[in-house]
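Our consortium's second objective concerns turning raw sequence data into structural hypotheses that experimental partners can test. To show how far this objective has progressed, the report includes one record in full. It was chosen at random from the queue rather than selected for favorable results. The single chain below, 103 residues long, was entered without modification.
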Amino acid sequence: MKPDMNKMLKQAQKMQADMARVQEELKDEMVEASAGGGAVLVAMSGDFRVLSVKIDPAAAEDVEMLQDLTAAAVNEAIRAAQQLADRKMSAITGAFGGMPGLM
């Protein structure tokens, strides 16, 4: 049986539109991550923009530790934002995940 190319094209166009919609929605989503038991708190949007960084003043006493904690919190926020995006996108692309060349 030959695949219906028109149907496949319409499905691909719908998926593309849905993905664009989700990418827009991710701009309004937020994740938070912390390091050092909350000494550094980073808020990041779902499209990977750092929205805020909060630092406990006590953490400022050790600059090297503060730098490490900030990097760790940002990296954790990136991981959380990526998981959020992956979850939302997989709801759209799930049917096409096993089809090479479509993703």
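The partners drew two points from this record. Residues 8 and 14 are 10 Å apart (CA to CA). The helical segments are 5-26, 63-93. Both points have been shared with the crystallography group to help prioritize constructs.
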